[in-house]
Structures are given as C-alpha cells and as structure tokens.
Amino acid sequence: MPALTRVPRGSLTDQVIDQLRERIVGGQFPVDQRLPVEASLARELGVGRSTVREALRVLVHAGLLESRQGDGTYVRARHETDAALRRRVLKADVINAYEVRRAMEVEAARLAATHRSAADLARLHELAAARDDAAGPESYRRADRALREHVVECTGNPLLGDLYRGVVDPLRSAAAGLVDEVDLVRDDPARPETADLVRAIADQDPRAAADAAARHMDAVLRVLTVMLQAAPIRRHS
Amino acid sequence: MPALTRVPRGSLTDQVIDQLRERIVGGQFPVDQRLPVEASLARELGVGRSTVREALRVLVHAGLLESRQGDGTYVRARHETDAALRRRVLKADVINAYEVRRAMEVEAARLAATHRSAADLARLHELAAARDDAAGPESYRRADRALREHVVECTGNPLLGDLYRGVVDPLRSAAAGLVDEVDLVRDDPARPETADLVRAIADQDPRAAADAAARHMDAVLRVLTVMLQAAPIRRHS
Q: Which UniProt keywords apply (chains A, B) (predicted)?
C-alpha cells in the first residue's frame, strides 16, 4: 500500500506534525486536554515557534485539534476518521444519523451472535446486570451505552467499531438533551428488546439478535420522530 | 451549531485553504485533476507563494490533495469524510469492510423500499435493464455498481450515501483485482437476489428488500472467504 498522504520528504513541519499526531493517537495528549503552549512545544521538539504554529494549523484543519480563541489549543479527536465523521454527522439530519446507527446496531448484533467468545459473553451478562441495577437515569444511560458498545466489540470488527463510535458519539454530545430523552424512553422496562438481544447473543442465534436490535432501533426511531414533530427546531440542518 | 474547526480569524492562509477547499468540494477541481502550479495559484488568489504552499500542505494532510514528487499536486478526494474513511478502510481487513458494507446495503434496501419515489423506481428499472443487457464483465460491473448506488440514493439519506461510498469506493480501487473477481461471481444469472431486490423496492416491501440485500451480501461474503483462503496474501493488513 503506498503512503497516501506523502508530502515532500524531510520537511521539518511534517516531522513535527507526525510527532504531535503520534502523541494524540497514542493517547499521551488525550481528547479534551489543552496542549502545552507554542513556545514550550517548540523548545521540547527543538524547532522554531513558526514550525510549531504551522503544524498546529494542519492538525486543527484535520480536526484533531481545536483552537479556542484566547484560551489555547485542545485535542478534539484521537483519529482523523473520528474527526471527519463527527463533522459529517453533525451536519446530517438526526433521523438520517439514527438510520445509519440502526444499520450498524443490527449488523453488530448479528455478528456478535456469531463471533462472541465465552469471555465476551460473561462480560455481556455483567453489563446487562449493571444496566438492570442502574440507579437513576444517568447511570442507566452509562450502563446502556457500555452494553451496546460491548456488543460492537463482540463482532471482532474494528472498522465497524470505529464507524459506530464515529456516528453515535457526536449524536450524544451534540444533541445531548435530545438523545438523553430518547435514551430515557428506551428505559421502559416493559420493552424486552435488550433482554432478547443478550439472550440471542448467548444462544449464538444471529437472526434473533439482529431482530432484537432492529426492534430496539425501530422503537427509538418512533420516539425520535414523535419528539421531532413536537419540537422541530431541534432537528439538525 | 458552533464552527467546529475555528482557527484564528483573518489568517490569509486560512482564507486560501477555504477557497481551495470550496473549489474541490464544488467540483471545479475534480478528483484526479492536477492543480495549477503554486505560482499561478498565488497570482490568481493575490497572495504569496509561501501562503499557497502552506495551504496546500494543510489540504494534503487533510487527504483532499496528494503531492506527487516531481509531478505536481492532485485532487485525491472531494470531501474530508471520504479521505478519512478511505484511509481507514484501506487499513481494515477486507472481510471487515464487507461486513460494514453488508450493514449499509441491507439498511439501504429497507429504506429504499419505504422512501423511493415513482421517479426513483423508473430509474431503478432502467438500471436493472441496463445490468441485464450488459455485454462483457466491465460494463456489467459498471451497471451493477450504478444500480446499487441508486438504491442508496432512493433512501433519501445522504449520510448513508456518503458512508456507503466511503467504504465501497476504496475497496474497489485498492483491491481492484479481488473485488472484480467477486463482482464477476455475483454475475451468476442463477442467483435471483438482485431481481428480488428490485421487485421488493417496487412493491414497497422493506422486509423483502432487506432480505434480498442480505442474501446477496451473504453470497458475496461466502465467495470472498473462499477466495481469501485460496490466496491469503491478498487479505489486507
């Protein structure tokens, strides 16, 4: 595979870009952290401040960093796929984003039923129990989210995982109020979809797993549609 | 929604970046076209060559442009989502990428059956006829591709369309030989999935449409798995 973003070799700026990018991807500069100031980065990397400034600009445009006026430069995303997807999803219609999420939840459920290991299943049962025991909406939402992310992990498909997070995370952070309400409605204990999903993955029944995930997402989409009709202004774009 | 990639205002480089980006997104600089040389861009935009050089560097790193040593700068992708997805998909396992493609083809079929207009359906029938009449593998593949992309268009979900192309296009261009062979196997006239898909979309039957798309992708994945076992070296990563 050829290097896809080859730039003229030996450029100092490119080396600085690569070093900063590595620290972001590697997690030494975690998301939401403020970067050291230009002068300190320049000293540490042994280059001029203008080189650092140019490298930061590239990484801001790539969506990895965010420059907050009068405050500093913050890490916004760990991967460029995340950053690009985030921008794209935030411009999308909320219903469209949920339809994409449905595509991935259903396929994840199907693949999880096929590929989950015994350890995956033990963890799934733990997460389902934590979700059942959650006290209050905030801890319920956290537990529900952990369970669904684990189902995606069980597929053994990291590309699906990246795309799933790339679509779901910006929906959570951008339309937080909206998504929270939808998630609360999901909490209805009369709705058995999630228990069905866990059981189907345990039974290694891909069809039943996909079906449970589809029923869950259809319920979420129905709630979302009603809410958007009541408050159309909250619909993206 | 706040601007997500805000950079210090008034920077000349940022203005040049925005102008070049607009021409790429707007299609005035189409994919695979070579850009005018630095001096000519600088003259046209009324800025210095070093400003142009810095802007080009940012767009190379964003994946929109590609600098080919001793040749020039070419447009590599029209959108940053495309560019970032392309990089990610090219690093992924081929089977994983096809699993993601399956998720999107199935959901697209389901939504197309629900949302397609009368004009969409007329076009779908045209494309299906062109596929049936295709002479030779190359024109068959082109027709098959046009039909599947049209199904995604029928959903009225542009986010799904972007992600679909972002996953499928790099698979086509990177693993061209492999994908071509898979596509040829798809050509088996004894396999009725595509006719079923078209009929289900015509009948506005989302369940039958999703089922036909799923059977099609399962057949493709079976072929792909056998081929990768025969030639494991062609598997990505």
A: DNA-binding, Transcription, Transcription regulation
Cα separation of A180 and A183, whole Å?
5
Express each pLDDT in A8-55 by its tens digit: 444 788 889 989 988 998 889 998 899 999 999 999 999 999 899 989
Does the interface predicted TM-score (ipTM) exceed 0.85?
no
Q: Does residue B19 sit at the A interface (CB-CB below 8 Å)? A: no
Q: Under an 8 A CB cutoff, do B62 and A61 touch?
A: yes
Where in chain A are all domains bearing CATH 1.20.120.530? 81-234
CB atoms within 10 A of CB A18: 11
CA distance A189 to A132: 9
* Chain B residues in contact with A174 (beta carbon < 8 A): 1
C-alpha to C-alpha distance for A8 and A54, rounded to whole angstroms: 15
CATH 3.10.180.10 fits B12-78, yes or no: no
CA of B184 vs chain A CAs: smallest distance (Å): 24
Selected for mutation to probe chain B from A64, A65, A67, A88 (highest B CB count within 10 Å) is A88
User: Best mutation site among B54, B57, B169 for testing chain A: the one with the most A CBs within 10 Å?
Assistant: B57
